[in-house]
Amino acid sequence: MRTVHPERYDLTLTASGRRVQQGWWSREATARYKFSGWVGQYSGLHDARLLLVGEETGEELASWP
Q1: Superkingdom of this entry's organism (predicted)?
Q2: Beta-carbon neighbour count of residue 35 at 10 Å?
Q3: Which of 43, 49, 51, 56 gives 20 to 30 Å between its CA and that of 19?
Q4: Domain for residue 31, yes or no?
Q5: Are strands 18-25 and 9-15 parallel, antiparallel or unpaired?
Q6: What is the pLDDT of residues 12-53, one digit of tens each?
């Protein structure tokens, strides 16, 4: 089980239902910047899905597609 850290932002890339890559950042602005970069970088990956979540609240902040 992973420990939840306040003010931490979790970005996960999945493809075909499997986690491919994951990253965490302490600043929301950095996490959103990474999210945009990952969209461009992985948009050609079959069945790719990105999800950005604020760990403190569990709120989905962004998703693609």
Answers
A1: Bacteria
A2: 21
A3: 56
A4: yes
A5: antiparallel
A6: 999 999 999 999 999 999 999 999 999 999 999 989 999 999
